[in-house]
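Revision sheet: C-alpha cells.
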Amino acid sequence: MASPSARSRVLLFTSCPYEGGAGADTRLASSIAECMPDRDFVWFSRWPSRGQRGPTRGRAVPIVSHDGGPHVPERFQAALLGGVLARRTDLVHAVLTIGRTYPLFSRLRRCILGGGPVIHTVSGVVDADLLERARPLGVTVALSEATAGQLRAAGFGDVRVIPPTIPLDRWPWQPRVGGTPVVLFAGHHDPEGGAHETIAAASEAYRRGARFRLVLAMRARLGQDVRPLEAELRALAAREGLPDVDILGHVSDMPGLLQATDVLLFPPQRLGGKADIPFVVLEALATGRPVILSDLPQFATLGDAGLRAPVGDRLRTGELLTQLLERPQWWEMQARLGRATVEEVFGPDRFRAQYERLYKEVLP
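Predicted:
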C-alpha cells in the first residue's frame, strides 16, 4: 500500500461512466479528479468512446454503455469491476447519490469493495426514508450541514462537510446583457422539483408589473417521455397568463444561456437527489447572476448570496423577482455578492485542501 505522501492509486467509484453526463455524481467525481492531480485515479469510462476525456493521470476502465447513463447494466458492471479494482488500489472514493439501490449496496459493501479504506461523497439523498435501511461505506462526506445532520441521525457516524466546487475559470463573471430581462429555471420534470413553482412565482411577478421572458431548461430523466411533460408546463403557463415562455431540452451551451440570463429562479419544494447546492446555482452566481431559491435548509451554505423565500410561497418568490428586476442597484449588489461567495466558499483551492487533508487522514 502507498504511503500518504506517495502518489496513491484511488478508485473513483461511480454508478455510471465518468463521462456519464451532467448528473451530480459524475460532476462531483470530475471536480475531485481535476482538483487533485497528484493522485492516480482509476475510473469507469464509456465504451464505445465518444471522445470524452477523464483525469490526466491514472487509467480508465471501460464500461459498455450506449448513452453513459446509470442504467441497470452500467450499475452491474460498476459493481463487478469495483470488486476487482478496490482490491488493487489504495483507496476507494465512492461518489454516489443515496437512492433506491443504495441500502442494498451499502449492506454488501465488504463483498463489493473489500475491507480497505473508503470515502463516500454523498451527492444527494433521494428520499430521507431510505436512510433507515442504509449503512455508511466508510468516512462520509456531505455537501451541507443539513444533509450531514440527517446522515448522523441515521447512524452514519463520521460525517464531514465539504461543499461542492466549480472551475471558476470556466465560469467567469459576465456583464449583464440588457434588453428584455430573462428569468431562467434549470432542472428536471420532478414532482415538486421547481418548474411548476417557477411558473407560479413568475405569474405573480407578471401580475405585479414585471416584464420578462421566462426560460425553462428542462433535463429529462432516464426513460422519460418529455413531450407530455412539456405540454403540461406550457398549459400551466398559459393558465397563469404568462405570455413569453420558452421550454428548452438539453442545453449544450449553458455558459451562453447564463450570460443571457438576468435572474436564476430555483424554488423546489424538495431536492429529490439533486446536489445540496445544485451546480447550476453555483454557475449562475459565479457568472454574476442573482438567484432566488426556496428556503430549504441545504441552501443555508450560501448565506446572503442566495435570496430565499418560504417553500411553496409564490407570493414572496414573485415579490423578490419583481424587486430584483426593478431595482438595478440591488441586482448589482446581489450579483457581486454571489460571485464573491462562490470564490470564497466554493472555490477549487478550498475544495482541494479539504479533500487532501481527508485523503492523508484515511490512507494507511
